[in-house]
Amino acid sequence: MTNPFEQQKPIPGVKKILVVSSGKGGVGKSTVSTHLALAFKEKGLKVGILDADIYGPSLPRMLGTMNQKPEVEGNSIKPLMVDGMKTMSIGNLVDEDMAVVWRGPMLFKAMNQFLFEVDWQDTDILVIDLPPGTGDVQLSLVQKVPVTAAVTVTTPQNVALADVKKSIDMFRRVNVPILGVIENMAYFELPGGDRTSIFPKGELESYLKQENLQKLGEVPLSPQIAQACEVGAALFYKPDSLQAKIFGEIADRILKQL
Question: Which of 32, 58, 101, 217 is the most exposed place for a label (fewest CB within 10 A)?
Answer without folding.
Answer: 101
